[in-house]
Specification:
Length: 272
């Protein structure tokens, strides 16, 4: 939250923007602060990965959809950013609701930057990012200390700029668990690049689609066979986890079947 002093630094006639992480899909996975921001919002700008159920928290707010179903393929990022600035300059409290965490591969950083350049107060409310939700969904402890001491969040989307292009061979040598966003389409090429970089073909891979939603699916393969999964996951949000920690999934999935939802207690002690 902003202090009075911070707000007085800005033009009082301006509105403000709160960039809110909606979490991975399940509406219960938004933070308490995110819920409060929605309840206080006058305008909500949202897209596909944010669950529209969350709009029930702000029934009187004007909701503006800027996702892929908005007539065209997608509202261009510059238009969304300009809309945020314009709504705030009109004096509104705007919530920009973004799937997962607003700064994780979501271009929230660009939006926050544009707001700062326009002198508009902007608060960022973090969210549960897809990699964390996918680990929980698949029962994969991303940094189990016996198997991985690092975790990498990486995009599988081929970037045009050479400087920011992913060096898969370098990642293959880190021993880190790899959490790959936006990698479904290029899964065969990514798996090939990782094995060429030194990871064994037997390295386990989990692919979690629609993590945290009732439509969630978990598929487990190896780097050698992962390419075959690509056609079954296209068109769904998919998070790919690569690393030895994926072998632990079975144990934790059994444990979550023993979970007592009312109290949230998981009887790990009952698991062999
Ligand atoms: N800001 C978001 C990521 C946006 S990039 C976050 O923090 O999670 C979009 C990519 O995120 C998708 O292509 C997919 O790889 C991943 N993703 C988002 N939601 C997901 C979900 N519920 N299940 C699996 N992957 C998801």
């Amino acid at each position: 939250m902003f202090s009075k002093e911070q707000i007085s630094l800005y033009d009082q006639s301006l509105g403000r923007v709160t960039l809110v992480g909606a979490g991975p899909g399940d509406p219960e996975l938004i933070t308490v602060r995110g819920q409060r921001a929605l309840r206080e919002a006058e305008v909500v700008i949202y897209d596909d990965l944010a669950n529209p159920e969350l709009l029930k928290l702000c029934p009187t707010a004007r909701a503006i959809y800027v996702g892929k179903r908005a007539g065209r393929h997608c509202v261009p990022q510059e238009e969304t950013t300009a809309l945020l600035v314009a709504e705030a300059q009109a004096g509104h409290h705007v919530v920009r609701l973004k799937g997962g965490d607003p700064l994780m591969f979501g271009r929230g950083g660009e939006e926050a930057h544009a707001l700062a350049a326009a002198g508009i107060p902007c608060e960022i409310v973090p969210g549960v990012t897809a990699a964390i939700a996918a680990g929980a969904a698949a029962g994969v402890p991303l940094t189990h200390r016996d198997h991985a001491s690092a975790v990498v969040f990486v995009t599988g989307h081929e970037c045009a700029k050479a400087e920011t292009r992913v060096d898969w061979a370098a990642l293959a040598k880190t021993g880190a668990t790899l959490c790959i966003y936006m990698g479904a389409r290029r899964l065969p090429q990514i798996a090939a690049a990782l094995t060429a970089g030194g990871l064994r073909e037997s390295t386990p891979v989990a692919v979690v689609t629609n993590a945290s939603l009732p439509t969630q699916e978990v598929r487990v393969a190896t780097l050698g066979s992962a390419g075959e999964l690509a056609p079954t996951i296209l068109g769904k949000p998919a998070l790919i986890i690569v690393g030895e920690v994926v072998r632990l999934a079975e144990v934790l999935t059994q444990a979550s079947a023993l979970a007592v939802p009312a109290s949230g207690v998981v009887e790990l002690a009952n698991v062999a």
